[in-house]
């Protein structure tokens, strides 16, 4: 059994059989029995958070594989930036296309609600992949990593890495209103309280711009002489934080725990800019999203909340967990 299979089995009771199309049946909603007739509309749309980003490319690959296997088509669209003002018009325009289901990673947990509600009211099944709205009445199903647990895992990893030393820790979040990264930051800060020698200096936002993350790290190094660690809650934030440490000459002195596993982050882990990465399984999120969308379309049982696996990578074990590295093409 591969590491990934093992982690999936261990960490995601709910996810067990996404690949085989047998999603767990607990906590189901919006069900009903299948009429048996194949639906006329087999078109799915995936709207991700931002273009050309390995997390979403990996999700798209998983979704495309699952859709093809099931005899559905899927089209992916993305805004140029992780920005609800750019993502909202993409969703509105889908009203003219009327897919059978919309799989979406909303870029804001509140402001994306009106457009998503509108499309749902047209009869399109809405499935959240990765991020979610605060309003739980819109989506039939939400698939995401257990982000609170990911934040806790990052804090436990930071405690191990600093090995009893005292110091301050900076938390870098991406954009306010991102459900996933907010949960990671919160989980991290709560868990860090269990290690009294480590003190959080609070959460700062990077707007999902690596240059802002780099600047926040260099500023914290200047203003906080006992800075011992940085937790970067997503890919762009992590890549920028690594740049900040490199330009300040602090690689290896300030421990960097990142989230995600982009090629640049993986390379940073290998070369020592990161000491650990908390990797997600975006391919699995995409596959499971498609399975749930098809269940909703075909009137089968749908599971409202599904948790996807997470795994901590370090330099020592990364190569044995290479299946968690994100893709840049399918
Ligand atoms: O960390 C992922 C995703 O889970 C999060 O919701 C937004 O940022 C990423 O896409 C990585 O950039």
Nutshell version of this structure?
With 330 residues, this protein is α/β, with parallel strands linked by helices.
Summarize the structure in words.
- The model is unreliable at 5-34 (pLDDT under 50).
- 40% of the residues lie in helices and 20% in strands.
- The chain has helices at 3-11, 54-70, 84-97, 113-121, 147-162, 179-192, 210-223, 235-247, 263-271, 282-297, and strands spanning 28-29, 43-47, 73-77, 101-104, 125-129, 141-145, 167-173, 198-205, 227-232, 255-259, 276-279, 302-303, 305-308, 311-313.
- β2 (43-47), α2 and β3 (73-77) form a beta-alpha-beta unit.
- The radius of gyration is 20 Å and the shape is elongated.
- It folds into two domains: 41-145 and 281-308, 3-Layer(aba) Sandwich (Rossmann fold); 147-279, 3-Layer(aba) Sandwich (Rossmann fold).
- It is built from ten helices and 14 strands.
- α2 packs parallel to α10, α3 packs parallel to α4 (113-121) and α7 packs across α8.
- The protein is α/β, with parallel strands linked by helices and 330 residues long.
- The strands form three sheets. A six-stranded parallel beta sheet has the order 3-2-4-5-6-13, with helices on both faces.
- Bound molecules: alpha-D-tagatopyranose (T6T).
- The site of alpha-D-tagatopyranose has 14 residues, from α6 and α8.
- It comes from Kibdelosporangium philippinense.
- Belongs to the bacterial solute-binding protein 2 family.
- It is found in: Cell envelope.
- This is ABC transporter substrate-binding protein.
- Pfam families: Peripla_BP_4 (PF13407).
């Amino acid at each position: 059994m591969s590491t990934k299979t093992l982690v999936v089995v261990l960490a995601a009771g709910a996810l067990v059989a996404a690949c085989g199309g047998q999603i767990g049946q607990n906590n189901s909603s919006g069900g009903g029995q299948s009429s048996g007739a194949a639906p006329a509309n087999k078109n799915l749309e995936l709207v991700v958070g931002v273009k050309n980003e390995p997390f979403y490319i990996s999700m798209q690959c998983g979704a495309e594989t699952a859709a093809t296997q099931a005899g559905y088509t899927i089209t992916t669209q993305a805004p140029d930036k992780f920005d609800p003002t750019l993502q909202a018009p993409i969703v509105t325009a889908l009203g003219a296309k009327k897919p059978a289901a919309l799989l979406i990673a909303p870029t804001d947990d509140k402001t994306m609600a009106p457009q998503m509600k509108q499309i749902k009211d047209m009869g399109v099944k809405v499935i959240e992949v990765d991020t979610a709205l605060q309003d739980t009445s819109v989506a039939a199903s939400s698939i995401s990593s257990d982000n609170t647990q990911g934040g806790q895992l990052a804090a436990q990893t930071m405690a191990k890495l600093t090995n009893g030393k005292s110091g301050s820790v900076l938390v870098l979040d991406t954009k306010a209103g991102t459900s996933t990264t907010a949960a990671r930051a919160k989980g991290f800060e709560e868990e860090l309280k269990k290690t009294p020698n480590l003190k959080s200096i609070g959460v700062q936002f990077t707007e999902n711009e690596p240059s802002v993350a780099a600047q926040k790290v260099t500023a914290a190094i200047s203003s906080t002489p006992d800075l011992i660690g940085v937790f970067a809650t997503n890919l762009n934030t992590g890549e920028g934080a690594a740049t900040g440490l490199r330009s300040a000459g602090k690689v290896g002195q300030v421990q960097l725990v990142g989230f995600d596993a982009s090629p640049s982050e993986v390379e940073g882990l290998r070369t020592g800019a990161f000491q650990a990465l908390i990797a997600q399984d975006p391919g699995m999120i995409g596959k499971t999203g498609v399975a749930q969308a098809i269940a909703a379309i075909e009137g089968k049982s749908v599971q409202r909340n599904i948790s996807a696996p997470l795994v901590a990578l370090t330099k020592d074990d990364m190569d044995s967990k290479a299946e968690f590295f994100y893709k840049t093409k399918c």
